[in-house]
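Quick one, probably user error.
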């Protein structure tokens, strides 16, 4: 209990300081710097805060971060999308001549970019996804970046050690391993199995099964552009594979919600018994409507 009180007190103090500072600086009220206020004046006021007040602005924590729009974050963090990869490192290595393997794939389009640009501002990212700052940044307390097994989160710390985002609830969704080939009835890993499903008339083998037979209700979430994904995927299974194994940074697959689809069998297979039947409520949207 003690820890929680300290935390709440800390947020309250930060809020109080903000309230004091803002009218002095820009004759705006504290309400104007409320995270949900997307007005340009509120953004200007936030950007004018001194370092400590900005650093500890309550917008960084729950609950304010849940309703923060990207503009509010970018009012202070222009570096996130504005800073570009150096064309040449201080040691003289040219960015264009040094590529990681994944940057040599057809899905990695154009010159090297920063991590944030790749997810938020490239043409590809904006076509298939609709990520917001607070999709990944769900509110970490800078003093609580080490997981604490407090009573609030007895079995499951909300953050992984010294991370600003929780990779299991964010990255893993699109960078997990390909789901177990056995549940799909595939003879082996996709790299080997795909030859059985694809030819020049059928460039996307995933759709042999996923166009009409299995899990046809998918991507009904606000952070993905479901229709654009299906359009692009007609040309190549690499579009699908790109988020379901092809860019895997993890050896495990994300345990996706199993949204009921038309023609689904009544019986739930053993591997799916613990699965939710709908996407996370926070992001859900019914694209078929
Ligand atoms: C009032 C200005 C301001 C606003 C608005 C703001 N930040 Fe910050 N943020 C800062 C400052 C200053 C720091 C400290 C930077 C440093 O020390 O280099 C910081 C640090 C961070 C960090 C590093 C945190 C850590 O634990 O080390 C993250 C991540 C971050 N901000 C994300 C966000 C997100 C996401 C939003 C929008 C929801 C946001 N910020 C809104 C000013 C702001
Ligand atoms: C795809 C997930 C994702 C999205 C979307 C995202 N971030 Fe981040 N951000 C990260 C990760 C991962 C880090 C590194 C975290 C760490 O080191 O623990 C990071 C780091 C940061 C930092 C710390 C400074 C740095 O460069 O390491 C700031 C500030 C920040 N992000 C702001 C933002 C803002 C503002 C937005 C929206 C415009 C945003 N982020 C969108 C994942 C994301
Ligand atoms: C909603 C899906 C989605 C989520 C969530 C997501 N990514 Fe990505 N990520 C992508 C896509 C799509 C690309 C390919 C972009 C391209 O090639 O233009 C990508 C590319 C990357 C790259 C390679 C590009 C580069 O910057 O060099 C890295 C590394 C990466 N993601 C790490 C992460 C991490 C770490 C997280 C969690 C903080 C994360 N991603 C969350 C979809 C996602
Ligand atoms: C031979 C048919 C077949 C092919 C080809 C196929 N899948 Fe599947 N896939 C299935 C079946 C069957 C399921 C499980 C259906 C269920 O939930 O009962 C499944 C499930 C999935 C799931 C959900 C896994 C989970 O854990 O909930 C994803 C994601 C998926 N497939 C993506 C793909 C992608 C991407 C490709 C192509 C790279 C692909 N599939 C190719 C038949 C196939
Ligand atoms: C930009 C990344 C991205 C791309 C591209 C993508 N997926 Fe997904 N997919 C996801 C995410 C994230 C989820 C989980 C969404 C949710 O929670 O509802 C998901 C969920 C699924 C599911 C489980 C759906 C459910 O609710 O039962 C299947 C099956 C699936 N994808 C297949 C595919 C196929 C087939 C393609 C190509 C046509 C594809 N995906 C392309 C990111 C992607």
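Nope, works fine. Designed sequence:
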């Amino acid at each position: 209990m003690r820890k929680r009180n300290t935390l709440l007190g800390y947020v309250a103090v930060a809020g109080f300081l903000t309230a004091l500072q803002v009218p002095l600086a820009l004759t705006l009220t504290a309400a104007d710097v409320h995270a949900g206020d997307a007005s340009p004046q509120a953004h200007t006021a936030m950007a004018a805060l001194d370092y400590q007040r900005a650093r500890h602005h309550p917008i960084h924590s729950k609950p304010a971060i849940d309703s923060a729009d990207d503009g509010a974050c970018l009012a202070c963090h222009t570096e996130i999308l504005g800073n570009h990869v150096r064309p040449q490192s201080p040691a003289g290595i040219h960015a264009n001549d040094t590529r990681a393997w994944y940057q040599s794939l057809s899905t990695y389009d154009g010159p090297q970019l920063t991590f944030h640009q790749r997810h938020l501002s490239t043409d590809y990212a904006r076509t298939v996804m609709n990520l917001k700052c607070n999709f990944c940044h769900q509110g970490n307390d800078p003093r609580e970046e080490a997981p604490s097994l407090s009573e609030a989160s007895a079995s499951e710390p909300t953050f992984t050690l010294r991370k600003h985002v929780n990779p299991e609830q964010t990255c893993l969704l699109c960078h997990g391993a390909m789901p177990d080939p056995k549940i799909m009835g595939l003879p082996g890993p996709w790299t080997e199995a795909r030859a059985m499903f694809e030819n020049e008339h059928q460039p996307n083998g995933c759709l042999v099964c996923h166009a009409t037979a299995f899990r046809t209700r998918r991507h009904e979430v606000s952070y993905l552009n479901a229709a654009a994904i299906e359009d692009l995927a007609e040309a190549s299974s690499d579009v699908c594979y790109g988020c379901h194994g092809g860019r895997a940074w993890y050896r495990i697959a994300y345990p996706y919600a199993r949204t009921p689809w038309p023609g689904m069998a009544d019986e739930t297979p053993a591997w799916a018994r613990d699965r939710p039947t709908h996407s996370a409520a926070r992001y859900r949207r019914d694209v078929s409507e």
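Residues 74 and 80 are 8 Å apart (CA to CA).
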